[in-house]
């Protein structure tokens, strides 16, 4: 199985080729240079993996949530490549990829779940709770909420004890969304706010989803913004002031 994955969700740009368990990846932190870098990175990982676009089984991309512009860049690129090569696409949650990447970077982390949180601006975070291991299924589905609502949701679902002020909560924290005081006050077992989303993690998760028959056509691929249209229009008006 060969899967080509791309990501520009956050302040990084990456491409990876998964080939029967072997992974080649190109990764750069580049806030505003994604469009220029992306296709050369795709060519580089295909060359390193001695493959061509026509030889991959599917393409994979971070579906979101995340930066509006970043999601559009990666999804547009994947759609163009998928149309050209007549390949299906496996959409992957950016939060699932962030969670997997954190576990890959921290092999000492134990069996507690990982709460991945990205800053969604407007005093909100994109977040999802993922189990131990490297699977794509969430314990609590990806959502956009205020940090206080995240805490409430965790309590309602039984993932927090009644008193979180004096003891560590039994979960690991990853992503810049954890810089909000309401989340930081939970005292997770460990925090990794600098972790980035990597295409290699998207590729591995996509391989699992592909084996389960989860795929879409290029024209069916849509970003998962989580925010509704009204909210995005409000953000556009704020930028124009």
TrEMBL record:
Locate the Gcp-like domain: which residues? 30-202
InterPro entries attached to this UniProt entry: ATPase_NBD, Gcp-like_dom, T6A_TsaB
Superkingdom in the source lineage: Bacteria
Alphabetized CDD domains for the sequence: ASKHA_NBD_TsaB
Q: Which Pfam families match?
A: TsaD
State the family named in the UniProt similarity comment for this chain. Belongs to the KAE1 / TsaD family. TsaB subfamily.
Protein's name in the database? tRNA threonylcarbamoyladenosine biosynthesis protein TsaB
